[in-house]
TrEMBL record:
This protein's name: YCII-related domain-containing protein
Similarity remark: Belongs to the YciI family.
Domain YCII-related: 18-103
């Protein structure tokens, strides 16, 4: 079965400073348990804020290193999920369910890409 990487993009400026609500985390935990029991989830995690990140870039034969936060970025990768699904349609359905557990004030995008094998 093919594997898929879902990149969870958030707008850090609109994300609540206190993080997800307790109710949202309960919904998230229930969904992650369901996905895991279904044999779909291989790995998932949230990422530290961009203020704690570093970008390494190769351009024009030179390496540059930039410490976060990255002011030129509106949406950042806030987390990821590695899943194994029968096809893209199934991966997208799980992603939709993931997005729906978020509280209404969140702006979240999930980019789903099949892993080239």
């Amino acid at each position: 079965m093919p594997r898929f990487l879902s990149l969870v993009r958030i707008d850090e400026k609109n994300a609540p400073a206190e993080g997800p609500s307790e109710e949202m985390m309960e919904r998230m935990d229930a969904l992650l348990e369901e996905i895991t029991k279904a044999g779909v989830m291989l790995d998932t995690a949230g990422l530290a804020p961009t203020a704690e990140g570093v970008r390494v870039r190769w351009e024009g034969g030179r390496i540059s290193v930039t410490d976060g936060p990255f002011t030129e970025t509106k949406e950042v990768i806030g987390g990821y999920a590695l899943s194994q699904c029968k096809d893209m349609a199934e991966a997208v359905e799980w992603s939709k369910r993931f997005l729906k557990v978020h509280d209404d004030h969140w702006t979240v995008t999930c980019e789903v890409r099949q892993i080239a094998e």
